[in-house]
Design brief:
The complex is a heterodimer of chains A (313) and B (534).
Chain A lengths: L1 H28 L4 H6 L5 H11 L5 H13 L13 H36 L4 H15 L2 H15 L15 H34 L3 H8 L4 H38 L5 H11 L2 H29 L6
Helix pairs in contact in A: 1-12, 5-6, 5-8, 5-10, 5-12, 6-8, 7-8, 7-10, 8-10, 9-10, 10-11, 10-12, 11-12
Chain B lengths: L2 H23 L9 E5 L15 H10 L1 E2 L1 E3 L5 E3 L2 E7 L4 E6 L13 H14 L1 H8 L1 E8 L2 E6 L6 H6 L7 E2 L2 H4 L16 E3 L9 E6 L24 E5 L4 H9 L5 E2 L4 H8 L4 E5 L5 E7 L9 H8 L4 H9 L6 E2 L18 H4 L4 H11 L5 E7 L3 H16 L3 E7 L1 H7 L13 E7 L27 H12 L3 H18 L2 E7 L2 E5 L2 E2 L12 E2 L2
Parallel strand pairs in B: 1-12, 1-13, 17-18, 17-19
Antiparallel strand pairs in B: 2-9, 3-4, 5-6, 6-8, 7-8, 10-11, 11-12, 13-21, 14-21, 15-19, 15-20, 16-20, 22-23
Helix pairs in contact in B: 3-4, 9-12, 10-13, 15-16
GO molecular function, one term (chain B): peptide transmembrane transporter activity
InterPro entries (chain B): Peptide/Ni-bd, SBP_5, SBP_5_dom
Protein name (chain B): ABC transporter substrate-binding protein
């Protein structure tokens, strides 16, 4: 097991190297000029040229790439072209809101979607099953920002239960922290709930046909025990896999959700950086996202051993 | 878990999440009453007001830095950091004396040499500053209180140059910061303005925080107006909350989570007007002036007759309706090269824009001018709704005129890169783009970059218009306002001959703020004088 983890961790190095090269090259050939954005609309071409030179953006690709890689190897993601702040600091400022949003969404989605899927499979063909599937279709179909606006209008403006926007750090208390996260998490969780509920239902339907389920029933196991202990555990591997894959979905959805609810997270940082062509920030954030994705997949692979003792690494 | 345990836990969670609303509800009392929450037009991407001309940076800078002269609602410079000045030797020697008690946020006194270094750095970036420096023989600080200008010839616009609110503004920084190269951002936000910058609380893209500078001494005299007069502060803390989504900002304002929103878009203004707790007011009478900028280097717009022909196609009402809506109190047509109701505004030659629009005639004029179907590449920024609206109407206008248009819809970051290209349109260059300028950046020939005709050194588009340059130079030497007006009239007439750009109208951006705020100043969003009533 340990050797497997080491191998997988080592395997992330070439993956990250390819991502780094890809991101840097893509940004190099993409149109846009941070010097022109910094200078502003009223600046003259000569002003823009001088700023470009002072930022070192007029140097050749290989020189800039070499410097960037060298800095990354020392753990330095560089400095934002616009704010002059270290990229690591900017990421550190933004990571808590995004992480909070993802954790609460994940928690909410799993707690709702898994029981929904299990019940839908148990009552397959009934109105409950159809209702769950209808909800899943709705969850997939309605864009996150539409759900976000509706929730903000009703629960914040009309009922005044939650704030419209913003983020309160966890250090300032569980209540304020959650209060800012409930609406965005529900908005972001819709697609995720739909995805997990559908895969849970499909997997459970298959498992519920297995002989050992019939045996459990014959032994007199209660409905709850049979569904959530015997069946769900055996259906867990594909569900966990989808949850892992869905992290990418969450990262993408966080960009929209953070904009709609003005949450100062990594999603908004990424969009702002892309619009301004703040290359060091874009590169840093994408590297981080790639690393998180690789890490999540590793954890998912390792978690298989918990659910299925036959899987060994 | 037993059912009652689950219900208990759920109730606990509900109680916990209910707490913050109670806390938010307390926002109008206690220390929160001394905090002003403001939603700026955009994120503060660049904090140095000299290296960028971004308006959001200028507005941020007025909190931190002070100016030698302010600008009042009559567009006149008024002493701000200076106690007064003496003009001698027929205008060739100007001595300015700093007020007592001026102090930087790091505790150091403001000295004349700080001001000299600041003026020198600013003048490297500012068009009017550059002209000013051509007539400056000596700019020095004989002592800590005195700034001395020795001029080769009288420069009547000296005080206007030092006090104008158009970007870049001549802000006074400590000498150690002002010595920074004019194209490199300063590393510290240390000024002598009424607020201190809080770098530790800044979250780029989300929040900027300022706190009241206790040692700031406002002027004792003069009415408060625009950036002039006593800057009396009534809040301990100003928070800028960046909200990229307009609907979110509207909701936050209605819910009382923020106090002031700088740029509510036209389509949300009706909603906000219906809210009795929200006030919408147009505070900047100079508005925003739309323009279509030509690339003068390449066909077809290197031909002045073609550019002139297109003046007959411009419907400023169409442009402005697309930008801000049908409410005519929010926009103006019949707008020339200077903002209406400002000192140099003139109706000279305006019939080219106000006469009946006749596309058949425009087509005939284009043909007579020699248009042969050359491709026109129109680059448009789709991520700025107002610019996108201008470009969409412009695209339609060009097609109606029978031009062979390629519409390139992209983001602003790509537009600003591509417009810097001097290549022909078919090789990655461009023919036309649309933009807005603040009225204060257009109200005289000294600040208006788009009117320059200095060829390769001009603003993007690079028009060569020697007569416009001559008139501009004459304007600098005009002895009084009447003489300036006469030259401005000639400039507008000449501009309709050279057509460096197509004027597309003027619109006014209302600010939305909670009704319990009073003392909001006209002009730019300023954070002194404003206060919250109970």
């Amino acid at each position: 097991m340990f050797a497997y983890i080491v191998r997988r961790v080592l395997a992330t190095i070439p993956v990250m190297a390819i991502v780094a090269l890809f991101v840097f090259s893509l940004l190099y050939i993409a149109p846009g000029d941070p010097a022109a954005v910094i200078a502003g609309d009223q600046a003259t071409p000569a002003d823009v040229e001088r700023i470009r030179a002072s930022l070192g953006l007029d140097r050749p690709f290989l020189v800039r790439f070499g410097e960037w890689v060298f800095r990354i190897l020392r753990g330095d993601l560089g400095v934002s072209i616009f704010t002059n702040l270290p990229v690591t600091r900017m990421i550190a400022q933004r990571i808590e809101p995004t992480l909070s949003l993802m954790v609460v969404t994940l928690f909410l989605a799993i707690s709702i979607a898994v029981p929904m899927g299990v019940v839908a499979a148990w009552k397959a063909g009934s109105w409950i099953d159809r209702a769950v599937m209808a909800f899943a279709v709705l969850g997939f179909s309605v864009p996150v920002f539409v759900v976000g606006y509706l929730l903000a209008y009703y629960f914040a403006l009309e009922l005044d239960w939650f704030p419209v926007q913003g983020y309160t750090p966890f250090a300032e208390g569980l209540g304020p922290w959650l209060s800012n996260l409930v609406l965005p998490s529900v908005a972001l969780g819709g697609v995720y709930i739909a995805l997990i509920a559908r895969i849970t239902r499909a997997t459970m339907l298959e498992v519920l046909q297995q002989d050992y389920i019939r045996t459990a029933r014959a032994k007199g196991a209660g409905q709850g025990t049979m569904l959530f202990v015997h069946a769900l555990k055996n259906a867990a591997v594909p569900i966990v896999t989808v949850i892992g894959i869905g992290v990418a979905l969450l990262i993408g959805g966080a960009v929209v959700t953070e904009s709609v609810f003005a949450i100062p997270g990594l999603g908004r940082l990424t969009v702002d950086a892309i619009l301004r062509r703040d290359y060091p920030v874009i590169q840093g954030v994408i590297l981080l996202f790639s690393f998180v994705y690789v890490l999540v997949n590793l954890l998912i692979d390792l978690s298989y051993t918990l659910f299925d003792p036959r899987i060994r690494y | 878990m037993y059912r009652r345990h689950l219900l208990g836990a759920t109730a606990g969670l509900a109680a916990a999440t209910a707490l913050p609303r109670f806390a938010i509800g307390q926002g109008t009392g206690g220390s929160a009453a001394r905090v002003l929450k403001f939603v700026p037009q955009a994120d503060l991407a660049v904090a140095d007001p000299i290296i960028t001309t971004a308006y959001v940076t200028r507005n941020h800078s007025y909190l931190i830095w002070d100016t030698l002269y302010g600008f009042d609602e009559d567009y006149k410079p008024q002493p701000q950091m200076v106690q007064g000045h003496v003009v001698e030797e027929n205008g060739r020697r100007v001595t300015m004396t700093l007020r007592d008690g001026l102090k930087f946020h790091d505790g150091e006194p403001v000295r004349a040499r700080d001001c000299v270094a600041s003026i020198q750095r600013w003048a490297k970036r500012d068009a009017l500053g550059q002209v000013m420096m051509t007539v400056v023989d000596e700019l020095s600080a004989p002592d800590d209180k005195t700034i001395l200008f020795r001029l080769k010839q009288p420069f009547p616009l000296l005080f206007e140059a030092l006090g104008k609110p158009s970007t870049p503004v001549c802000f006074m920084m400590p000498e150690r910061l002002a010595k920074t190269d004019a194209t490199t951002a300063v590393k510290e936000m240390i000024g002598s303005g009424p607020f201190r910058f809080k770098p530790d609380e800044r979250v780029p893209g989300a929040r900027v925080v300022y706190e009241r500078f206790a040692d700031y001494v406002p002027r004792a005299d003069g009415p408060v107006s625009w950036t002039a007069g006593p800057k009396k502060v009534n809040f301990d803390r100003i928070e800028w909350h960046v909200m990229p989504d307009a609907a979110t900002a509207a909701n936050a304002l209605q819910n009382g989570e923020v106090d002031w929103w700088e740029q509510p878009p036209g389509d949300l203004q009706a909603l906000l007007r219906r809210n009795r707790n929200v006030n919408l007011e147009i505070q900047d009478p100079t508005g925003l002036m739309g323009m279509a900028r030509f690339n003068h280097l390449h066909p077809p717009f290197n031909n002045p007759a073609i550019r002139r022909a297109l003046l007959g196609a411009v419907s400023q009402a169409d442009f402005m309706t697309a930008v801000i809506g049908t409410d005519k109190s929010l926009w103006r047509e019949g707008v020339g090269v200077f903002p209406p109701d400002t000192p140099l505004a003139t109706d000279a030659g305006m019939e080219v824009l106000t006469s009946r629009r006749d596309y058949d005639k425009v087509k005939a004029d284009l043909a007579a001018a020699g248009y042969k179907g050359e491709k026109v590449v129109l680059i448009a920024a789709s991520d700025f709704p107002s610019l996108n609206a201008l470009a969409q109407v412009g695209h339609d206008m060009l097609k109606k005129c029978g031009l062979n248009v390629e519409f390139v819809s992209t983001d602003w970051g790509s537009v600003v890169q591509r417009r810097a290209s001097k290549e022909p349109p078919e090789k990655g260059g461009w023919s036309m783009f649309f933009t807005f300028w603040s009225g204060v950046d257009m109200f005289n020939p000294g600040v208006q970059q788009a009117l320059r005709g200095n060829g390769q050194s001009a603003w993007f588009g690079w028009p060569t218009a020697p007569r416009l340059e001559e008139l501009r130079n004459a304007w600098f030497e005009a002895p009084d306002l009447e003489a300036q007006k006469a030259i401005a009239r000639d400039i507008q007439l000449q501009a309709f001959q050279d057509v460096p750009y197509l004027p597309c109208g003027q619109y006014f951006q209302a600010w939305a703020y909670r009704r319990n705020l009073t003392g909001v100043l006209k002009g730019l969003p300023m954070f002194w004088n404003v206060q919250r009533n109970a």
